[in-house]
């Protein structure tokens, strides 16, 4: 995949984050590192910067432990049981939360390999419940000699103040504002022998919404059918990528029709098979509702329901329960909304841009 093929391996290769890169480089040169909180838009290089930093600190990833918090929160014991990092310590008699806390304590206490400290990285850290974050705060303090904690998030406000105050906060800029996205995509096109037209570049950027990983996925998919990437090829890829969004909109149809068995089945497929987080589903529902223009009174009610669900999902152990409740409320509040939502399609022109249209699950270039 092009995402991995063109993922920067060194800090100097990261585009659009000059100030952050300079600071991280100074840490690598001194072989020292504070606890970090990296925040910014999806796909701007947060996780990639952590991997590059580890490579320059250690020459490998042997002292890097990376935890995908969204997988843990969505799947809990199933993920702990199957993930190679946790499964050897898995204990069916314990709850998922207890296992997670115990394992983080175990790994933080382990001595690093030929280094002063190791790195524990929590991607999508905003999804961790407050009690888990409090436990990590205590572990950070207790094992500061052997470990450094790095929290990666798009929502720094969801990280508890006790952690934020103990970390160096680094903001990653949107790539579109620095011109880094243009340079990145043109560089890839040149290496792959593609002709990337101005219209094609604009269309890729429009649908990627600032996410470099999504932009690279779109361009790679478009290159399968043509070596010339223009607006037509990009639109074809975007329409194919709409499948997940269509599945989310179908949830409203099932809820409105009272087909709750089908609703649960489709919701389970989105979360477990398509790997959509509860918050991603809420975001898609938000965009679908806005496109229907259901009327001020209904829209106001639905926005309250969406906001409440989004807040409760921050500490939810089971996303399905909250999303099912949300869909029932939406179906009751928006009369006539079902037909309008299902009638929504990708526009033939580019005058309206959906918020999220990705060719794959969230890109690893975050």
Helix and strand sequence: HHEHEHHHEHEHEHHEHHEHHHHHHH
Q: What's the CATH topology label of the largest domain?
A: Rossmann fold
Global outline: globular
Return Rg in Å. Answer: 22 Å
Lateral arrangement of strands in the main beta sheet: 2-3-4-1-5
Main sheet record = 5 strands, parallel
Mean pLDDT: 83
Structural class: alpha/beta
β-strand number:
7
User: Low-confidence parts lasting 5 or more residues at pLDDT below 50?
Assistant: 338-366
Helix count equals 19
The CATH class label of the largest domain is Alpha Beta
Count of domains: 3
Please tell me about this protein's structure:
- With 366 residues, the protein is an alpha/beta fold.
- The chain folds into 3 domains: 2-173, 3-Layer(aba) Sandwich (Rossmann fold), CATH 3.40.50; 176-241, Helicase, Ruva Protein, domain 3, CATH 1.10.8; 243-342, Up-down Bundle (Zinc Finger, Delta Prime, domain 3).
- The protein has 19 helices and 7 strands.
- It has helices at residues 2-5, 18-30, 46-58, 69-75, 77-82, 96-109, 130-142, 161-164, 175-178, 180-191, 198-208, 212-223, 231-241, 243-256, 260-273, 278-292, 296-312, 319-333, 337-342, and strands at residues 36-40, 64-68, 118-123, 147-153, 168-172, 195-196, 228-229.
- Helix 7 links the parallel strand 3 and strand 4 (147-153).
């Amino acid at each position: 995949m092009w995402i991995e093929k063109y993922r920067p391996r060194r800090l100097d290769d990261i585009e659009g984050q000059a100030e952050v890169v300079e600071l991280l480089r100074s840490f690598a040169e001194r072989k020292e590192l504070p606890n970090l909180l990296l925040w910014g838009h999806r796909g701007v290089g947060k996780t990639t910067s952590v991997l590059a930093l580890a490579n320059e600190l250690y020459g490998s990833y042997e002292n890097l432990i990376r935890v995908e918090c969204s997988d843990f929160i969505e799947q809990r014991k199933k993920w702990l049981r199957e993930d190679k990092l946790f499964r050897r310590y898995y204990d069916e008699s314990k709850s998922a939360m207890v296992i997670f806390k115990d394992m983080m304590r175990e790994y933080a206490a382990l001595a690093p390999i030929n280094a002063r400290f190791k790195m524990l990285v929590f991607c999508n850290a905003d999804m961790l419940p407050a009690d888990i974050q409090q436990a990590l705060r205590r572990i950070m303090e207790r094992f500061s000699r052997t470990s450094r904690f790095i929290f990666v998030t798009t929502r720094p406000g969801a990280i508890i103040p006790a952690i934020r105050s103990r970390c160096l906060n680094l903001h990653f800029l949107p790539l579109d504002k620095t011109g880094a996205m243009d340079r990145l995509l043109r560089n890839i096109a040149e290496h792959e022998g593609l002709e990337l037209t101005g219209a094609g570049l604009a269309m890729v950027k429009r649908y990627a919404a600032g996410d470099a990983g999504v932009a690279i996925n779109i361009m790679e998919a478009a290159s399968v059918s043509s070596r010339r990437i223009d607006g037509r090829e990009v639109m074809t890829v975007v329409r194919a990528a709409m499948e997940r969004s269509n599945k989310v909109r179908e949830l409203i149809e099932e809820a409105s029709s009272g087909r709750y068995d089908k609703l649960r089945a489709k919701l389970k497929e989105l979360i477990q098979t398509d790997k959509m987080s509860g918050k991603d589903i809420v975001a898609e529902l938000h965009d679908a509702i806005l496109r229907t223009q259901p009327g001020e009174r209904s829209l106001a009610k639905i926005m309250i329901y969406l906001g409440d669900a989004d807040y409760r999902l921050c500490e939810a152990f089971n996303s399905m329960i909250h999303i099912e409740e949300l869909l029932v409320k939406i179906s009751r509040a928006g009369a006539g909304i079902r037909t309008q939502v299902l009638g929504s399609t990708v526009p033939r022109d580019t005058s309206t841009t959906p918020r999220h249209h990705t060719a794959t699950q969230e890109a690893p270039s975050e």
